[in-house]
Design goal:
This protein is an alpha+beta fold. The chain is built from 7 helices and 23 strands.
Length: 340
């Protein structure tokens, strides 16, 4: 779903649609592409310690896009076919922690239509093809900041979509047919959402910014907090409110202390930025605090699960006690079990 990340891009290019003649019923739709670059061997904890990482990462990706755009016209044209030098700078770029060793960069921008042209020679290609070639050539390790993520996956994830402004409908997959109103009269941004809110994916309503993001009056969409930081509540309005440390799996944010605390016995948390630890399934529990996966929820019947410490000659008997320890019915036992 690309819409929520593209309102600002479409608003920036609104004039390019207004240049179409009013008596022309068909105009080109806006082509938007999204690239995903995965770094499966990233040392996420080290990356989170880099000062102003989000800004460094975004500037590095912009530099990579501009390098490609210098040779192949991938970034979308402005009004009347002009291509301002900062076109690629309008890309929406976010970082995503997939796991402890997996980082993902999402890049969304208004793109030229295929086939795209080479700047210097009479040659054509596609946005995906030149981006994939750039990936294999190390373009997304172009700066020292991106090198901190390690080697990216060899295959680029690619998605595209076409959009029309209000007053037109999408036809033939990539064209916009105008209705009785001119496109310039009603841009796609119908109503500005309040600070801390953004348009839903389908554009029908405003919804609160999720945890770990914010939206000030100058932002068109919710922006991610700096890596390793989050917000106390949804609907945050200012970057300065990204002052809570993101809790790792196995811990949750204690709202009283605003510190990360380990999940208690019988609970686990398998996500980043958890607020309430998850309860183990019925008849299972964890035997340590700070559990970070449901697989650590073991049967409360240690005799049945084999987790007991009774001697192999002893009969294990399950007891309905709080610590779930069994009784070993034999002359053999150890310090963690007791005799009948």
């Amino acid at each position: 779903m690309l819409l929520s990340a593209l309102l600002v891009l479409l608003a920036f290019y609104a004039d390019s649609f207004a240049t179409a003649k009013d008596d022309d019923p068909i105009v080109p739709a806006v082509r938007v592409v999204r690239l995903q670059v995965d770094y499966p061997e990233a040392k996420v904890q080290d990356v989170q310690r880099i000062h102003k990482w989000n800004s460094l990462m975004r500037n590095s990706v912009i530099a990579s896009l501009r390098f490609i755009n210098k040779h192949w016209t991938i970034c979308g044209s402005g009004p009347n076919g002009e291509r301002p030098a900062n076109d690629c700078g309008k890309a929406q770029i976010t970082g995503e922690i997939v796991s402890d060793n997996h980082y993902r960069i999402n890049v969304t921008f208004i793109s030229e239509r295929d086939p795209i042209k080479n700047v210097k020679v009479d040659s054509t290609s596609t946005v995906y093809a030149v981006s994939q070639i750039g990936l294999k050539g190390g373009i997304f390790q172009y700066t020292n900041a991106l090198k901190a993520l390690g080697k990216p996956s060899p295959k680029l994830e690619f998605d595209e979509a076409y959009f029309c402004y209000k007053g037109a409908v999408l036809v033939d997959g990539d064209k916009c047919r105008k209705e009785f109103r001119r496109l310039r009269d009603e841009p796609i941004v119908e109503q500005k959402c309040a600070d801390g809110w953004q348009r839903s994916a389908d554009g029908s309503r405003c919804e609160q910014c999720p945890l770990g993001s914010f939206k000030s009056k100058d932002d068109a969409v919710c922006m991610l907090c700096p890596t390793g930081m989050t917000t106390l509540n949804k609907g945050t309005k200012l970057l300065s409110e990204c002052r809570i440390k993101t809790c790792y799996p196995g811990t949750f944010l204690n709202l009283t202390t605003t510190q990360c605390s380990p999940c208690d016995y019988g609970l686990y948390m398998d996500e980043y930025d958890g607020r309430i630890c998850k309860l183990c399934p019925v008849s299972t529990t964890t035997y340590q605090t700070g559990s970070n996966t449901i697989t650590q929820c073991l049967s409360t019947n240690q005799c049945k699960s084999g987790a007991h410490t009774c001697h192999w000659l002893a009969a294990c008997m399950d007891l309905p006690d709080d610590d779930h320890k069994p009784r070993c019915d034999s002359e053999f036992s150890n310090s963690t079990s007791f005799l009948m």
